[in-house]
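Milestone M4 deliverable, item 7.
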Amino acid sequence: MTDSPVQVNALVVDAQDPERLAAFWSALLGRPVVGRGGPYVWLRRENGLALGFQQTETPKPGKNRVHMDISSSDPEAEQRRAEALGGRRLDQYADGGFLVMADPEGNEFCIIPTGSFAIDDEGRANYLDRPGPEDRA
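Output delivered:
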């Protein structure tokens, strides 16, 4: 038995076009592509976590069971940037108060504000209800 805890080493996303998906996430996260091997394309490891994209012929079947949250001091600006890179907002989740996006292959992710925000008893966030930086006096 070992004294060290198990740690998450990598997050691997299935992709029909791993080069395209890696390019999207590389630009969004500012992590360059650092490796290719077999069916995999890898972004630079940061904070101990690798992010890879694995070639698969199967399209995404439905809602993700696991998704990433990325943080930004300006979620709305980050939404616009993600859309310019080929992502899109998923309005069907707007009632939850989270900014839910999809990458070019439809994998869901949330853009959340840097720092804390409230979540009510039903799990609804409030950060989209707050005025943006341009609305503040």
